[in-house]
Amino acid sequence: xxxxxxxxxxxxxxxxxxxxxxxxxxxxxxxxxxxxxxxxxxxxxxxxxxxxxxxxxxxxxxxxxxxxxxxxxxxxxxxxxxxxxxxxxxxxxxxxxxxxxxxxxxxxxxxxxxxxxxxxxxxxx
Length: 125
Ligand code: HEC
Prior knowledge:
- Helices cover 41% and strands 3% of the residues.
- It has helices spanning 11-21, 33-40, 56-59, 91-106, 112-123, and strands spanning 67-68, 75-76.
- A hairpin with a 6-residue loop joins β1 (67-68) and β2.
- The two termini are 28 Å apart.
- Heme C is lined by residues 53, 55, 57-59, 69-71, 76-77, 79, 87-88, 90, 93-94, 97-98, 101-102, 104-105, 118, 122.
C-alpha cells in the first residue's frame, strides 16, 4: 500500500490510514458515510467525451434498489446490506470490484480514504 496520507483528514483517520498502510485490513478503515454518499452520485466527465459516470450509473442512487450494468444491461442486485446481507462480507470481492469500478467511473483507482468513505456509506444502507 502506498496511498498518501491526506493532511485534510483528522488525526484519528490518519492513524487508521497508517494502520492500513502497515497491512491491517484496509476495508476496516473508518470512513465518512456522508462523504461516501456525496461521492456516490458525483458525476465524472470522461476524456473521450462520452456520458459522465458515477457509481449510481450502474447501482442507482438508491442502494436498496437493483441496478443495471450500463454497458451490458445485466441486472445488478442491490448493494445495500439491509436488503442483501452478503454484501461487503467478502473482502477480496469488495477490493476487486472497487478497483474495477473506481477505474471505470473515476478513470483511476480510489484512494484508501475514498474507499473507506464508500464502504461506510454502503454499510449504512
Ligand atoms: C459499469 C457499472 C458499474 C459502476 C459504474 C459501478 N459498479 Fe460497483 N459493481 C458493478 C458490478 C457488475 C458488480 C459485481 C456484481 C455484483 O456484486 O452484484 C459491482 C460490485 C460492487 C461492489 C461489491 C459489493 C459486494 O458484493 O460486496 C462494491 C463495493 C461496488 N460495486 C462499489 C461501487 C462503487 C463505490 C462505485 C463507484 C466508484 C461503483 N461500484 C460503480 C458494476 C458497477
